[in-house]
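A favour, since you know our structure tokens better than I do. What I am after is a single protein written out in full by you. Could you add the entry underneath, on a fresh line?


***
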Amino acid sequence: MVLSNAYNYINVLDKAADASWVRNDVLANNIANADTPNYKRKDVQFETYLANAVAGTDSLDETVSKIDLATLESTTYTEQAGLSYRADGNNVDISTENVELAKNQIKYYTLMDSINQEFSRLKSALKTN
């Protein structure tokens, strides 16, 4: 994490990438436990926290520069703990997990590309001065 408000876009992207990395592990764990009796699907919540942190302002730049990064931590939760798709009590649908894993991998690579672009912009700005 870069300790300056001037770099908060990078810091927010970093937090989002971290959450995506955690989600990747959670989804892989769901897939590994698809045949485990009574296992309940888990997921990661982050996007809601980010949306709440940037909501209600006119200037996204100003909001991001003042965002409290400590509030942007992902949490892992058990999804629909009382629901089971099968007689063995498991609620993991392997097809859904594979789709979510692919979607999350695309999101992660997009976030990493965005972070690289931000650093490239900073590097260009420093070279021209």
